[in-house]
């Protein structure tokens, strides 16, 4: 009986709320969003020493990029540093990327000791391939 003297639906006891199904649901949703979300990352070759820029800005869009590394000795490699390219191959790579994605950009990770002429040659090869927008990797300083 309740305080008023009437019996309730649950007898004299208050209803008991089991939280375990709700906790299970929260964990399932968390796993679902972790698995279904697409993490946008790219491999950074640690052998390329990126220059520091005081006015650098972090680009907002990371998709639609072709990432190339230019080393201090002038070697051009892919983002992970495994495949080496010539300037003609860079032009072909950019042409293929431009056909697949019209808004593709070149993300250039040039070593701080790389010869400027080599960096310019890579940009020229990308332009001959149809990609005119270039993003330079730099470290942002305070």
Explain this structure.
The structure is a single chain. Helix 2 (87-100) crosses helix 3. The chain has a domain at 52-140: Nucleotidyltransferase, domain 5 (2-Layer Sandwich), CATH 3.30.420.270. The chain has a five-stranded mixed sheet. It has a two-stranded parallel sheet with strand order 1-7. A hairpin with a 5-residue loop joins strand 2 (65-70) and strand 3. The chain is elongated, with a radius of gyration of 28 Å. The model has no long low-confidence stretch (mean pLDDT 80). It is an alpha/beta fold. It has helices at 20-36, 87-100, 116-128, and strands spanning 52-53, 65-70, 76-78, 84-85, 105-110, 134-136, 139-140. It starts with 19 loop residues before the first helix and ends with a strand. The longest helix is centred in the first third of the chain and has 17 residues, at 20-36.
């Amino acid at each position: 009986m309740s305080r008023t003297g009437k019996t309730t639906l649950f007898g004299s006891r208050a209803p008991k709320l089991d939280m375990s199904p709700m906790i299970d649901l929260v964990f399932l949703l968390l796993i679902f969003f972790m698995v279904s979300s697409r993490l946008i990352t790219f491999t950074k070759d640690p052998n390329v020493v990126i220059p520091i820029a005081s006015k650098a800005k972090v680009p907002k869009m990371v998709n639609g990029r072709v990432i190339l590394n230019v080393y201090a000795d002038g070697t051009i490699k892919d983002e992970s540093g495994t495949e080496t390219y010539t300037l003609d191959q860079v032009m072909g790579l950019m042409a293929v990327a431009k056909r697949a994605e019209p808004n593709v950009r070149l993300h250039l990770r040039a070593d701080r000791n790389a010869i400027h002429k080599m960096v310019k040659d890579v940009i020229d090869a990308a332009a001959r391939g149809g990609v005119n927008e270039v993003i330079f990797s730099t470290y942002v300083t305070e």
